[in-house]
Write a structure and sequence with these properties.
By secondary structure, this protein is of the alpha+beta class. The chain has a domain of 100 residues: CO dehydrogenase flavoprotein, C-terminal domain (Enolase-like, domain 1), CATH 3.30.390.50. 29% of the residues lie in helices and 22% in strands. The chain has twelve helices and twelve strands. α5 packs antiparallel against α8, α10 runs antiparallel to α11 and α11 runs antiparallel to α12. The mean pLDDT is 96. Bound molecules: iron/sulfur cluster (SF4). Iron/sulfur cluster (SF4) binds next to loops.
Amino acid sequence: MRPFNYIVAADDAIAVNAASRDPASKFLAGGTTLIDLMKLNVSQPDQLVDINKLAHSDISSVNGGLLIGALTKNSDVVMNAMVQQHFPILAKAILSGASPQLRNMATVGGNIMQRTRCPYFRDVTMPCNKRAPGSGCPALTGHNRMHAILGGSDRCIAVHASDMCVALTALDAVLILKSADGERKVPIEKFYLVPGDNPEKENVLNPGELIVAVELPLSKFALRSHYLKVRDRSSFSFALASVAACLSVQHGTISDARIVLGGVATKPWRCQDSEKILIGKPVSAAAFAQAAAAAVAGAMPHKHNKFKVELAKRSIVRALEIAALGVT
Ligand code: SF4
C-alpha cells in the first residue's frame, strides 16, 4: 500500500471541496471494499476523505416514501420498521448479501459504489481494462463462469456485485448527489454505465461528487415482491443470478411490474420488455415464462457461463411466482 493523505471531513462542504481539489481522492465510509482494494494495490488514492462524521445516517419518512442517508449502515436499513413494512424486498436483498459483520460496517453509499468481484480486476499481476485501461480483458477468454451475459462489451464483462442495488432499481430509487457546485438527483437506473469502450467509467458521478442519500418513492409493490438469489453456497457468496421481482395485481390482472436482474449483468439490469409483457395479463405461469424468455433474449454468454441463461430464466419465473403469492 502506498502512502496517502487522510483527512476527516466535518461537513459536506469540506468533504466535496477536498475531493474536488484532488481528483485522485476517495471518500472513506465503512471501508469494506476500499480498504481491501488499497491493500491489494488495485486502488491507490492520493487522499482519503473520511466522511463518517457527516450527518447522513438517518432514515426518515417523506411523502409515503423514505429518505435513506448514504451513511446508514446496511444492517440499520434491514432493521428499520418502515423498510420492513413498505420496502420488504430491500431488506431481503441486503440480508442476502455479505455477512452480518460486513453489513454492520458497510454503508448504503458504499454498497452503491462497491466494485466488481472479477478476480482479474483484483489481481494487479493481470491485465484488466477496468483497472488499467487498454491493457486487455483476460476474462473474455479466461475463466468467466461468474461473469456477465448481459450488458458486456469486448472490453469488459464484469458483473455488478451488489444485491441491494438490484432491489433499489426495482423500487425506482433516486440518488441524491452533492458536489462543490450543488446538489442533483439521478435515478439509480441511470446512475450506472455499461462498460462499452470505457469500462473504467462505472457511473455518472463527477470527480469530487458524493452520494448523500437515497430517495425511495411510495411503493405499490410492498404486498407482492421477492428477491431471489441463487449462489454456490447459501452462507456467504456472490450471486450466480438474482432477481428482484415486484408485482401490482388488481382483480387477478397485473397492473404494474418490475423485474431487475443481478449476478448476470454489468449493472443492475432492468428488464423493461419483460415488464411490458406482464402488464395487463392475468397472473399465470404462461405470462411469467414469456417474461423470463424476453429478459434473456439479448444474452451473450461466454465459454463458462452459458448456464446463466437458463438459470436467469428459471430464477425470474420462480421470483415472480413467489411475489404473486404475496410472500417476501
Ligand atoms: Fe477487467 Fe472487466 Fe475484464 Fe474483469 S471483465 S478482467 S474487470 S476488464
